[in-house]
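Retro notes - structure team

What went well: the batch runner handled both jobs without manual restarts.
What didn't: labels got mixed up in the shared folder, which is why I'm recording both outputs here explicitly, each with its sequence directly above its tokens.

Job 1
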Amino acid sequence: MSLNLNTNPMKKQNKISIYALVIMGLSLILTSSCKKDNDNSEDSKKSENSGIVIKGEISTKSSIKAKGVKSTNSLTLADAKKILVFSKGYYSLTDIVNNTFSVTGQINTGVALIFLDANNHYIGNLSSQGLNMLPLGNMKNGENTQIDLSTLTLVGNSVVPSHDPLGNEIIISATEINSLKNIGAYYESIAKNIDTDNDGIPDVLSNKQLVIYNIFGIYAGHFGRNDTKPVVNNSSHYYINYQVEIDGGSALTFSNSIVLSGPTDDPYSIITTWGYKMAPDCGGNRAFIASFGVMDNAPADAPWGTAFLPFRKGTYTLTLDGKQTFTLDYSNLNVKNNLVIVTPTIHTNSEGKLTSITFEYKLPDGTIITPASMLTNVMVQLSTNTASQFYNSSRLTSSTGFSTITLSTPIDISTLYQMDVWYDDLLGNQYDIIWR
């Protein structure tokens, strides 16, 4: 199958490593999230319908900011009238009533609570132990967990709860918390994107919201086989490719053209529209999913021939059909500071056929972590040296456990060249950990 990367919508397919396909000269298109969003498994349905209740109270003294704290805005928490709740595939706006609120966060995701004034101006975001989200993966009472943040106060742009759920309702280590802190101005960008068409009305109220994510491709080394351990590249020599994905709410429509340009202060000469997919194939109550890349030549020693550069921080313009324009604020992340190396080992029977794949989860420095604290799902693709896929696994989640994929029927892997281990982090960013 060959598709025009700039104009044709993506057809329904399993995700394919774009990074491998570029070097092999194929014009197949990646939409990794589509497989996940179209998953109709019981685990998927359960996750989508499961919510963690999060409640709290605005301090009556929060109109005064903490002394000695430099703040980037003049608003106080007493000005907060709304809470924007954001996670992968979930976006809601809730009123604060009588200084109290109760919202729902999706289990198995990272949930941001962003506090806004009556005119949707950013005040701050929930922050505990310096972590600007609630990682709702490894919960004390599973989906029945409830979180009472108690009284909230504003310190700078951080909305700090008097009750800390980290280490209490949320089971997580200090090491995992530190790895998740690499999100900088990410949530302020989300707040700025609440009205991308600039009509003065929050986009989510009319299903016109736009959400931007990152897709990373990391060449990590050589997968393990039976008693032979994996060989992991030194983190200083990772080869990483970058893309952004933009998801459009169900009320956003276009015919055949979607273009991303920017950033305003230092624009790229061209941003390639890698591909897009439209409803109903993209799932998740969305009108479309589109992916974009900034292409360049790869270094001579790179494992592929084309480099996809990191996107610069700034304001971008999304144009649909040459006439509908939307402004998106983008804050880039340092992937290495928030990266989990999912390390696979394949296991074979006496005939050399694949029977199972086991995984370890480590930070780039080798520290072993609990996967549910930092990611939401894992899947594997196996392909030949011509990028022909011959195996796509089901997803591992917190419900199934993250340790092992067991094949019901062993498969021939004599043509195996590359293994792509995909995962979503708690923010919704997607990672392709590539092994050969």
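Job 2
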Amino acid sequence: MTQGAQRWNHVNFAVAPERLPLIEECIDTLFGWEKFVAKPYLVGYRLSDDMHEAALYFRPVPASAALHLALDRLRTQDPGLDTALHTLDGIEGDWADHTGFMTASLAEWEDRLALARRLERERPDLAIRVVDVLRPGDGRAQTDYLYQAFIRLGLLGPLRNTFEMQARTA
């Protein structure tokens, strides 16, 4: 990286406070990232050894819960809103807002994808859904070396709730 270049160093999610313990369990179980802070007001994970890159935070924000309740209420009253949220929930993973990360190997990617599918079936309380999987050679993959799995975490709410898990063979 050239000196002075900018880079992303963290992502923060404002979550409904009552969902934070289950979100923490979901992330711990599904991704296994290093949790380096677990306080009532902040849960944080690192994806690398560098404290200044690749961090993920969850903060309990009551307004997030209020927004989810308002959207649920308004969906019943406004067919256009309901259709828009339903369409976003069903859109291809690569077109939705998402946060991407790279696994260390294809084997890890396959293991985590299998775990996500198992949790989707066996732990509905975690609200995990594998939205899409792209593999080289499937006719839909972007490249001949990039594996992509889009995993939606419904506990985060109806928006910005998707993680793109990648692996490369080149």
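One thing worth noting from job 2: The beta strands are 10-15, 34-39, 42-46, 55-60, 98-102, 128-134, 146-153, 162-168.
We'll revisit the folder naming next retro.
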